[in-house]
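TICKET: design request
STATUS: open
ATTACHED STRUCTURE:
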């Protein structure tokens, strides 16, 4: 093996470890339940019912869930440091002004290194007034499994419109205009 190939393999392994850490995926020795099976072998380990997992709004302290609404849910994953996320939130602010009360807006911070305080500072600066919460690892895994791996990445800045009837549309072009979010919400009806 030459040095380039070894270096590439090392970088690949480090990248996989970093992604696993961002998603909160347990390593095999962390998830060993004592029965000899690794957590990686059990697809249910660490999974939550992401639609009904209680989340806490950073602004108000109110508990809410992603599921169970009679109106469409506009779900956006983000990180405070992410420039494309801020652009997307500006589009969502424009959308929410027109659809206030007709949709539930939820922004989930998927960066495991950012906590409530960073989100509060972000909201003070932006004035956004829909739900903002730190996404628990099980919720992040659940929405990734249900929709797209991009939901675990701030820079992807995807938006998912979840219809009350269970249908959904993933809008993942990094900067979805308010008109496109509006069209997806109209598709729920």
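STATUS: resolved
RESOLUTION: sequence designed for all positions
ATTACHED SEQUENCE:
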């Amino acid at each position: 093996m030459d040095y380039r190939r070894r270096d590439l393999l090392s970088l690949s392994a480090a990248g996989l470890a970093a992604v696993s850490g961002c998603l909160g995926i347990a390593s095999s020795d962390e998830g060993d339940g004592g029965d000899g099976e690794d957590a990686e072998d059990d697809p249910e380990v660490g999974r939550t019912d992401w639609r009904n997992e209680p989340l806490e709004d950073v602004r108000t302290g109110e508990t809410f869930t992603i599921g169970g609404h009679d109106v469409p849910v506009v779900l956006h994953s983000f990180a405070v440091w992410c420039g494309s996320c801020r652009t997307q939130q500006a589009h969502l602010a424009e959308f929410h002004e027109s659809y206030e009360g007709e949709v539930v807006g939820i922004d989930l911070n998927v960066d495991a290194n950012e906590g409530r305080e960073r989100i509060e500072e972000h909201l003070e600066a932006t004035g956004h007034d829909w739900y903002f919460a730190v996404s628990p690892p099980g919720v992040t895994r659940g929405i990734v499994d249900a929709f797209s791996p991009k939901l675990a990445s701030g820079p992807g800045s995807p938006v998912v419109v979840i219809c009350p009837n269970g249908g959904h549309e993933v809008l993942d072009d990094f900067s979805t205009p308010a008109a496109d979010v509006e069209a997806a919400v109209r598709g729920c009806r």
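CLOSING REMARK: The first strand starts at residue 55 and ends at 56. The radius of gyration is 18 Å.
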